[in-house]
Structure formats: C-alpha cells, structure tokens
Design a protein that fits this description.
exocytosis; Syncollin; mainly beta; Gamma-B Crystallin, domain 1; 133 residues; two-stranded antiparallel sheet; 12% helix
Length: 133
C-alpha cells in the first residue's frame, strides 16, 4: 500500500466532516438576542453546497411551540433546519398535523432534500405543521 493512501483517506475524512453541518448554527447556540432559549429554527434557503445552507428567512420556534398550521409564508417553505439540544421537532407534510410525519432530534439538517418522505418525496419545502418539545 502506498504511503499516500492513508493521507488521502484522512484528507477525505476531514473534508467530509465539516460539510455535514455546513453554515448551520451549532444546536447549542440556538438562542435569541436576549438569551432566551430557542427550540428549533427553520430556514427557507438550502443549496447543493453545504456552506450555503441555513440561510435566508428564519422561523424560530420556542420550546412547546405547537403550530398545526404554519404561517402562510412558511407553509411548504423550509428547506434547512436546526434543532436545539434536549429538543425534538415533529413535522407533518399536511396542515392540521396530517399526512406524513417525521421527528428530528437535536442537530443540524442543512439539506432536507436528503431526508426521505415516503418513496418519491423528501422533506424540503414539504413541512406544513410543527411541534417542538
């Protein structure tokens, strides 16, 4: 085995790890300016490049937020999200908490295109209701 192989594998690993979070905030940093805690944050921009994700308009959810109907400008708009530590975000594909559902635990999800919603769909631009606990 060439001495370059281990170095190449290490370089590939180092490149792959930072991209997993992209430009998204660290879940522990989800706070408002006044220091109050935020349970989750939805973003309307995503991109094939992870460094361009978690940008654009934001919708912050406080702990205990229960929105069976998202505001009209946010229904089917979220394409990136971050869930704070010790929180869990449940989403539905249809208003009124109907349709497909998924739970997102604490972490950064820069590209919702990577999370399947059934056989043919994904969660990008498909969230119509949320509950954050």
């Amino acid at each position: 085995m060439s001495p370059l192989c281990p170095l190449l594998l290490l370089a590939l690993a180092l490149v792959a790890v930072p991209g997993a979070r992209g430009n998204c905030p660290v879940p522990a940093d989800l706070k408002r300016e006044d220091g109050t805690r935020t349970c989750a944050r939805l973003y309307d921009k995503s991109d094939p490049y992870y460094d361009n994700c978690c940008q654009g308009a934001q919708l912050s959810l406080e702990p205990g937020s229960d929105l069976p109907y998202l505001p009209s400008d946010w229904a089917n708009t979220a394409s990136s999200l971050v869930v704070a530590q010790r929180c869990e975000l449940t989403v539905w594909s249809l208003p009124g908490k109907k349709g497909k559902t998924r739970k997102f635990s604490a972490g950064s999800y820069p590209r919702l295109e990577e999370y399947r919603r059934g056989i043919f769909g994904d969660w990008s631009n498909a969230i119509s209701a949320v509950y954050c606990k």
